[in-house]
């Protein structure tokens, strides 16, 4: 049989969200092609040899940007090719591909050896507790942007190797490039890079001419960057820090280092060296920079505490574990969790530990490092979830009577936080996705309309905060910068609370970072300092001279804030445990508030109010460790997760059988066209490149997080809840969120290609089962199936918008703005005599909807799914809300007991509230 090579890599380099995965994909394909050459079934064909040659040519420039496999092994690969040693080429490609996939080159010198230089072993893939992994030295790579001749580069690399010492905590290899553009490519393709040494005098243009690499260079090079620049070193440092903020960047120059050190350009540099000063200082500075990120102040101290012979005389029997390890009945608890968990337990805040409530030691240091990692001014660890983090911010910022603009479709913790703070919510509805029984996100124009209405009524001073979810549970990502920019044009001191519970990982993706709260805050701060923005604002202000400050035309016009008046006040809450390697309930508040000094005292009080005096030490340590991991390998992990999510989407939607019954909803299906000015419709469509997605991320009002896959299952005859149960019971696949006809597949840094295969196989098995049952069941089975599908896909209830608060809960019932005193309604429900219950299907419901008196909810009513409150305390219930509830087919509805019915505030209780308000 004639041998045949596998197809070329499925996607071009510039079609990968994770550029580094394009390289791995290339080696994987080369391995397959080399295996075909070495099969011996027949003489190699010209097509096969050309395929291998093309793959080698494609990989060559990428390998010059990575330390492994290095010049030595690449030369050996070329030698095997030129000699026609197909067996040797196959073995070498297999080794390199395997080492890249497993990462074994980071730990084993054998991966770097030629095949005749020693015995090759499989990489250590065991968990650290049963392997030598816990004693390893972390590996990284250093990029040197050199000005010298290429022939001198090997000597430079060897000089750095000679600086290694056995007691170095880390070990590294160097990668040398000679141009600005090659340095940019290295930062994109090489996820092992942690440090950059810029030696002034380097060239600008890359020698690589492939269209895909040129496309990557162009889309990542800002306007104004060109070969004509004089300060290339500073420009490169600025660009690389923007792309990979975690980089330690060093500058080597023969110019006046004192003058350079005093300029703004030095802000992007860790250290400046004069000329060819001792390489040992450079080497030690590199290791010191890694140590700074590697150190986990709280975890390190907790581990040290656990190793000490501590006598405990405090209220925590499990501390040191003696009550467990000596137990006759619960010794298995110790066997399951291990010794260290109990040795590291304490309720003390001394002896090397610290207080979460008043941190002055290692928790304070850990929080400072986290603020740096997440792009804020300060951060606060929270050990009982982002629900608590949200309540802390609400209580710290809001005062009784303040107005808070909020999406009704946000997490319930925000609604409860508003009740606790005594503020008045002004609910704004997100755009609906009725076909999926979910809401999208809150657009800019409705927010502007609400702010302008408040301004027109003289109430803008009471508008204290805007609360938005980014990204939403279903993956809708806001244009954070534009949202804040336009809101500040109306209310210059508006506080923003961005609930990024699901989006913490985005900080570590150059593609998604621009859409984060801290990314937007940083850009606005820089924008307002820029003289060019002042000119832009002056021109805009002149163009708006004839348009009144509350003119409705401003709703549809882009607005700009006065740089002398606007204050950037941004709070970001993150569930570290949801997208990073932290224990459950590990959360963080990241702050970029230019007026934090004005609220610091009340922020502390709110923190004291909601934070336990007995926080879980392991959760604190895990937040500290999650920060370390993301600063050192977040770029790699997040890029891989993005790529994996896109490949899962492709596999589902392109599979000839699975796609009959299941579908991964695309950006075009999840985001209305009006919010997608770029026209971006789907990830990785044939012919598209990542440049198309970047265009959407930069300019569209909403984008879709690729890692949050809305898997539509209605065409398979399953509602979301039933399908979730099926996957858990029969296929060992766990999911979280569901809707009427979908489930949410969340991809994170923990998922692998094996997980992808697990999911795809399950969907294929289910699809085959449906096919078989329809084929064997006859016409009646097909009719029943089609009816079930119609009920799930076509006969979906309209989503009810927020109606209004009852007039008794409003300061001015005639006002055009709909804020209301939800707190008063919430506490009325504490009095049973003030409430009544009517069953949902009782005729009295319909009668009162028609003739009155109005039905007013006494509770938050939150069905799961969809998971948002369709009623809040004090809300007037409409026919649309009742119709939606009656069509709901879910088992879990918080705030609603079917046996008792709807809990309502009695009309006479509302009359009493109205009378009280009049007296006030």
Summarize the structure.
The chain has 920 residues and is α/β, with parallel strands linked by helices. The chain contains 33 helices and 23 strands. A seven-stranded mixed β-sheet has the order 6-15-14-13-11-7-8, with helices on both faces. A five-stranded parallel β-sheet has the order 2-1-3-4-5, sandwiched between helices.
What does this structure look like?
There is one protein chain. This protein has 920 residues and is of the alpha/beta class. The chain is 44% helix and 12% strand. The chain contains 33 helices and 23 strands. It has a seven-stranded mixed beta sheet, sandwiched between helices. Strand 1, helix 5 and strand 2 form a beta-alpha-beta unit. Helix 18 packs parallel to helix 19. It is globular. It starts with 18 loop residues before the first helix and ends with a helix. The mean pLDDT is 91.
User: Percent of residues in helical segments?
Assistant: 40-55%
Strand order of the largest sheet: 6-15-14-13-11-7-8
| Mean model confidence by pLDDT | 91
Largest sheet: 7 strands, mixed
By DSSP, the count of extended strands is: 23
- Our measurement of the CA-to-CA distance between the termini, rounded to an integer number of angstroms, reads 93 Å
Q: Percent of residues in beta strands?
A: 5-15%
Structural class: alpha/beta
Shape: globular
Question: Uncertain regions: pLDDT < 50 for 5+ in a row?
Answer: none
Count the DSSP helices. 33
Please tell me how large the radius of gyration is: 30 Å
């Amino acid at each position: 049989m004639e041998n045949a090579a596998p197809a070329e890599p499925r996607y071009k380099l510039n079609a990968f969200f994770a550029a580094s995965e394009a390289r791995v994909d290339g080696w994987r394909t080369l391995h397959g092609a080399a295996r075909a050459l070495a099969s011996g079934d027949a003489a190699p064909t010209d097509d096969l040899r050309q395929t291998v040659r093309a793959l080698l040519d494609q990989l060559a420039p990428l390998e010059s940007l990575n330390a492994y496999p290095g010049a030595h092994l690449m030369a050996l690969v070329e030698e095997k090719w030129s000699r026609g040693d197909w067996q040797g080429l196959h073995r070498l490609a297999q080794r390199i591909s395997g080492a890249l996939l497993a990462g074994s080159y980071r730990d084993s010198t054998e991966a770097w050896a030629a095949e005749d230089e020693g015995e090759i072993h499989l990489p250590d893939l065991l968990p650290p507790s049963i392997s030598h992994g816990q004693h390893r030295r972390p590996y990284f790579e250093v990029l040197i942007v050199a000005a010298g001749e290429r022939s001198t580069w090997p000597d430079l690399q060897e000089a750095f190797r000679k600086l290694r010492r056995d007691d170095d905590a880390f070990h590294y290899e160097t990668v040398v490039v000679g141009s600005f553009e090659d340095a940019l490519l290295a930062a994109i393709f090489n996820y092992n890079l942690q440090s950059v040494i810029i030696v002034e005098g380097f060239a600008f243009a890359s020698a690589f001419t492939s269209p895909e690499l040129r496309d990557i260079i162009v889309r990542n090079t800002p306007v104004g960057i060109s070969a004509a620049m004089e300060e290339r070193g500073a420009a490169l440092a600025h660009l690389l820090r923007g792309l990979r903020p975690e980089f330690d960047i060093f500058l080597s120059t023969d110019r006046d280092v004192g003058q350079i050190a005093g300029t703004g350009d030095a802000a992007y540099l860790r250290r400046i060296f004069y000329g060819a000063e001792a390489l040992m200082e450079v080497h030690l500075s590199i290791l010191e920079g890694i140590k700074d990120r590697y150190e986990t102040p709280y975890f390190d101290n907790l581990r040290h505490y656990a190793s000490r012979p501590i006598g405990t005389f405090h209220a925590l029997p499990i501390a040191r574990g003696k009550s467990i390890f000596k137990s006759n009945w619960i010794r298995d608890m110790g066997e399951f969790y291990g010794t260290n968990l109990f040795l590291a337990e304490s309720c003390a805040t001394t002896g090397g530990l610290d207080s979460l409530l008043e941190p002055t030691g290692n928790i304070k240091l850990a929080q400072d490092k986290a603020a740096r990692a997440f792009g804020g001014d300060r951060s606060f660890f929270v050990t009982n979830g982002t629900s608590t983090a949200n309540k802390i911010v609400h209580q710290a910022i809001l005062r009784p009577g303040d107005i808070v603009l909020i999406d009704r479709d946000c997490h319930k913790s925000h609604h409860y936080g508003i009740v606790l703070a005594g503020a008045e919510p002004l609910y704004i509805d997100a755009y609906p996705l009725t076909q999926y029984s979910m809401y999208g996100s809150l657009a800019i124009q409705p927010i502007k309309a609400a702010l302008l209405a408040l301004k027109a009524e003289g109430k803008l001073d009471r508008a204290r905060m805007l609360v938005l979810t980014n990204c939403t549970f279903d993956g809708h990502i806001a244009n954070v910068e534009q949202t804040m920019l336009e809101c500040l044009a109306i209310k210059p001191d508006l506080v923003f609370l961005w609930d990024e519970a699901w989006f913490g990982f985005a900080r570590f993706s150059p593609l998604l970072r621009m859409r984060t709260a801290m990314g937007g805050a940083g850009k606005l701060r820089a924008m307002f300092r820029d003289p060019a923005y002042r000119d832009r604002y002056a021109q805009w202000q002149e163009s708006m001279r004839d348009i009144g400050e509350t003119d409705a035309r401003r709703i549809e016009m882009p607005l700009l804030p006065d740089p002398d008046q606007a204050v950037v006040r941004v709070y970001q809450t993150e569930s570290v445990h949801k997208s990073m390697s932290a224990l459950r309930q590990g959360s963080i508040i990241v702050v970029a508030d230019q007026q934090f000094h004005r609220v610091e005292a009340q922020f502390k009080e709110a923190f004291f109010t909601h934070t336990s005096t007995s926080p879980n030490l392991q959760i604190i340590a895990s937040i500290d460790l999650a920060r370390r991991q993301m600063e050192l390998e977040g770029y790699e992990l997040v890029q891989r997760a993005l790529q994996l999510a896109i490949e899962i989407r492709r596999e589902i939607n392109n599979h000839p059988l699975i796609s009959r019954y299941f579908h991964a909803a695309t950006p075009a299906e999840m985001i209305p066209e009006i919010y997608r000015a770029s026209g971006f419709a789907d990830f990785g469509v044939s012919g598209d490149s990542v440049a198309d997605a970047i265009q959407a991320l930069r300019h569209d009002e909403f984008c879709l997080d690729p890692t949050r896959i809305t898997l539509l299952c209605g065409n398979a005859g399953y509602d979301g809840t039933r399908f979730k149960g099926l996957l858990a019971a029969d296929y060992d696949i766990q999911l979280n969120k569901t809707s009427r006809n979908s489930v949410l597949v969340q991809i994170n840094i923990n998922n692998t290609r094996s997980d992808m295969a697990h999911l795809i196989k399950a969907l294929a098995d289910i699809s085959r089962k449906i096919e078989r049952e329809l084929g064997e069941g006859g016409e009646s089975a097909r009719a029943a199936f089609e009816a079930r599908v119609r009920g799930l896909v076509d006969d979906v209830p309209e989503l009810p918008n927020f109606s209004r608060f009852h007039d008794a809960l409003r300061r001015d019932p005639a006002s055009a703005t709909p804020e209301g005193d939800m707190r008063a309604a919430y506490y009325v429900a504490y009095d049973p005599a003030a409430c009544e219950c009517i069953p949902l299907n009782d005729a009295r419901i319909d009668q009162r909807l028609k003739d009155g008196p109005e039905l007013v909810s006494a509770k938050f009513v939150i069905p799961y799914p969809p998971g948002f409150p369709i009623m809040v305390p004090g809300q007037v219930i409409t026919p649309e809300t009742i119709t939606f509830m009656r069509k709901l087919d879910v088992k879990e509805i918080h705030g609603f007991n079917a046996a008792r019915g709807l809990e309502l505030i009695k009309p006479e209780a509302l009359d009493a509230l109205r009378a009280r308000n009049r007296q006030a």
